[in-house]
Design goal:
9 strands, globular, Jelly Rolls, single chain, 1 helix
Amino acid sequence: MRDTMISRRDFAIELVAVAGTLCAVAAADLGKDPIGPSVYDWNKIPLTKTALGGVRQFFRGPTKTLDELELHVTTLNPGEASHPPHKHPNEELVIVKEGTVEALVNGQWERLGAGSVIFNASNELHGLRNVGSEPATYHVINWKSERTPK
């Protein structure tokens, strides 16, 4: 019967391999080029259909001043909510493009239409639902900086 204990040499080699892999993954994230001057044509951003409607992912990455900047556009079918009310450390802006939504802000649901803007503050409970009879489409802009709580 063979002894199944790992030798110190084998353990050291495996430890170096794991550490190297973790460093490579971390460096890949840190090495991303910042988003620079850009344009994004609505017609060239693919719509990914979902059970609730659809989403267009425009961009997500670091900028010269932010750890991360992300923009996506969600379309919600009538009667749908993107997800239950929730909170997260990053701040975000929601700009209603079309439709009628209700936004949970400061514990109150507020009805809003096209052109309305919602600011979701860090770690504050918020939510959004389509209360109209047509699809509702809105832009979501998220950002993280060194001041974003962990």
